[in-house]
Amino acid sequence: MVRTRLTPELHGMTLPESSARPMDVAIVGAGIVGLATAIALRRHGHHVRIFEASQINTEIGAGVGLQRNAVRILERFGYCRENLKPVDYDGIVVFDAKTGVSVTHPWLVPRNDETPDLFCLRSDLHDELKRLATGEGEGPPAQVLLDTKVVACDPETGTITLRSGEICQADVVIGADGVHSTVRISILGRETKAPGSGWSCFRCLFDASGAEEIPELAWLSGGINGARNVAWREDGPFRMFFIYKCRSGAIVNFVGFYTDPKQSEPGEYRLSLIVFTTESCILAGWTPVTTRGEILETFQSFHPKFLRIFDLPIASPLMKWQLRVTPILPTWIRGRAALLGDAAHGTLPLLGQGLAMGLEDAATLGCLFPLGTTKENVPIRLGAYQTLRKERGEYVNTESVAQATQEKRGTYIRFTEAFQGGFHFPFIIPPFHETMGVLISGLKQSWPPKSKFSVDDIPDLSGQVMIVTGGGSGIGKETVKALLQHNAKVYVAARSPENAKAAIEDLKFQTGKQAEFLHLDLADLHAVKRAANEFMEKETRLHVLFNNGGVMACPVEQVTSQNYDLQFGTNVLGHFYFTTLLLPTLIATATPGNPARVVNTSSLASEIAGANIDYNTLKDGPARKKKSTNFLYAQSKFGNVVFSNELFRRYGDKGVISVALNPGNLRSNLQRHLRGLQAIIVNSILFPTPLGALTQLWAGTTDVGKTFGGKYLIPWAREGESPSTDPAAEKALWTWCEEQVANI
Fold first, then answer.
1. For labeling, which of 446, 541, 546, 673 is most exposed (least CB within 10 Å)?
2. Cα–Cα distances in Å, from 74 out to 39, 67, 126?
């Protein structure tokens, strides 16, 4: 029997392994991203050659932080964590450079021991990737050709020209040759300069072995494993240390940032921080270009205890780097050639995602070029690569650069004290108190298994009346579509008549069935009451109420018509009032063995919000304004679960069951308020919207769904552990909600 490996099909290509021809791949540049690409492609059986200009293929000894999206890719590549000699990256301790006062900010999501963030040396990471690319493993080992500089590339024919004059043919050419990319010149037809950012930095490595003997350096080791951010908060030029240990704690990586408006000057050798190629190291000769005295003068206003770090033995040259960035490119591809990593989107290190973006580029190419890809399909698949990666890479590029400008700093990932407390992302300077909690929690979510339930399993719903709040878009619209296809009478309850009616027309075109419109503004309790009355004037039965609508991550200053926090007021209180007004109809509809159902859409955020509701934050006031939009969103999603459980406790014996659920990471209008890197990465891990409807359709339409009262469901169509387990707290929220709507 011939074994066939099925792969994602593009233009109908899937071939048995025994007959599939491997591609010849030419990768220009044997840095971290070039090696990662070689790993991704050799695993499919392709023949990979890496052309490296330097005579010795090593990386400089600078440290690097790997967040979980990067670590997951390394895990898929089969890396050995011990070979990186890492230090866990559990959070950051932020110091005031003048006073020495510190605040510890651990990651806001419980640590995943299988995929922790880490710090390591670039050289150790490079060695491990070289092992995976060229050593034993799945597929033929990649060849690294040293002292083989590529001077030209013909993207249309897939040929590269070497410094020796030799011309090499390949099916696909990958430009992983950094910010000074030769392949980029060939793809664009011109040279692209990397302008200065206005920032420079000093960097070096210290031997940490003597740190414990210097009492003033206790700040370096005390507390959590992670980075030390020492920032100048007073007036004057921006200055900051970013320091962390690596090489199993034996080495301290030091970076000292400062404002530097100068561009490169005649006779002065300035490198971009993002240029970590061996060739650049050779050109520079690795002779120190700065001194302790110059660094100490730049940071002389810092508290003396922070300057004692320069009493440690120096383990590398003292280097001075000007931060430069690759401008946004019109294209990353042409013919049979593509750019990735710094060649495509080199940026500043201010969001900690530059290297991770390169690894994601490499992994994406690995997914798009399985064994059996034909030479003719290469340009099409490179087009798919650009579609998947360019927008994401450019967002990280643009928003990293924005952090270098004082007036823009913090405008892209500004989320105050997310969830419980707060977190300063390394390069977002107080007093902004920024966080990346939601971003990191998104990266941490597992991928659900394939659903055993599909819309084809929905029974005939003829004669049943249903309401879907937020039914005009996103998973609400997908839910309405499936219900119409199975003959239910469905009311699309939405705030915008124009948008809802447009959705209804579109659904009619798709299904041939007509949904009804119900004008419902969940942010106005009077409007909620009008909507419930309007429905009850038209219908005497209600079989299923899908409490699906909501808002997410909206600006903190936004409130409801009755001055409640917009997210809690809409997501919880509005739905509470709407549901309780419709309870008589729900109870009247229920029959023995056929309960009426209330399906409450929550979120994974409910599971990280904590087990309490801060009632001081539910109406506008000082306590609420101290919280972030992400805390308020997570609290509202937890409130959905609390309400759902209490509803079933009170009315389950009257024939009304209530269930809460996390629909999954989905593309919908809920993300419209997200900005910056949070938007980039959160959106990158989202699943197609139709998948999000599966779990609530499973709960609201199937026979097994009749048994889900008081339960909490997770994607896709599975039972999970409820984040709310305190009946007293559930009763307290119900009582609070009753008090708020008593006089409406």
1. 446
2. 10, 11, 12
Here the CATH number for the domain that contains residue 649 is 3.40.50.720
- Of residues 150 and 279, more confidence is placed in 150
Inside any domain, residue 448 = no
Q: What is the pLDDT of residue 8?
A: 34
Check whether residue 573 and residue 672 sit in a common domain. Answer: yes
Q: What is the β-pairing status of strands 718-720 and 712-714?
A: antiparallel
Range of the domain at 158: 24-82+115-193+328-403
Buried/exposed code over 472-511 (b: 16+ C-beta within 10 A; e: otherwise): bbbbbbbbbbbbbbbbbbbbbbbbeeeebeebbeebeeeb
| Cα–chain center distance at 703 | 37
| Active centre residues (catalytic) | 602, 633, 637
544's tokens: 């299923």
Cα gap 188→331, rounded to integer Å: 7
Integer CA distances (angstroms), 605 to 418, 614, 669, 682, in order = 11, 16, 17, 13
Domain count within the chain: 2
C-alpha dihedral sign at 27, 33, 35, 39 = negative
Measured between alpha carbons, how far is residue 459 from residues 159, 456, 601 in Å?
Answer: 58, 8, 22
Q: Which residues contact 261 (CB under 8 A, 6 or more apart)?
A: 198
H/E stretch holding 169 reads strand 167-169
Q: For the segment 456-514, what is each residue's pLDDT rounded down to a tens digit? A: 999 999 999 999 999 999 899 999 999 999 999 999 999 999 999 999 999 999 999 99
Question: Quick one: which of 49, 101, 408, 123 has its CA closest to 233?
Answer: 101
Where a domain ends, among 403, 437, 467? Answer: 403
Question: Is the residue at 651 inside a domain?
Answer: yes
> How many whole angstroms separate alpha carbon 604 and alpha carbon 607?
5
Pick from 554, 509, 527, 510: nearest CA to 469: 527
CA dihedral 179, 183, 184, 186 (to 10 degrees): 150
Handedness of CA 641, 642, 647, 648 (dihedral sign): positive
Q: Judging by beta carbons within 10 Å of its beta carbon (0-12, 13-18, 19+), is residue 100 exposed, middle or buried?
A: middle
Reading the block at residue 421, the tokens are 């407390």
